[in-house]
Amino acid sequence: MQQLNWLANVSKKKLYYGITAAIVMIGIIGGVLWKENNQAKPVAEDIPLVRVATVKPSSAAQSYAYSGEVRGRYESQLAFQVGGKIIKRYVELGSTVKAGDVLMQIDPRDVQQTVNSALAQVYAAESQLKLAESNLNRYRQLYAQNAISRAQLDQYQNAYDVAAAAVRQASAQYAQGANQLDYSLLYADKPGVIASISAEAGQVVSAGQTVLTIVQDGEREVEISVPENRLEELRKATQFTISFWALPHVKIDGKIREIAPMADQTTRTYKVRISLVNPPPEIKLGMTAAVTVANFNNQTTAAAIPLSSIYQTNDSPCVWVVTNNIVNLRPIQVGTFGDGQIQVLAGLNPGETIVTAGVHKLREGQKVRVAGGDSQ
Question: Has this prediction a pTM greater than 0.70?
Answer without folding.
Answer: no
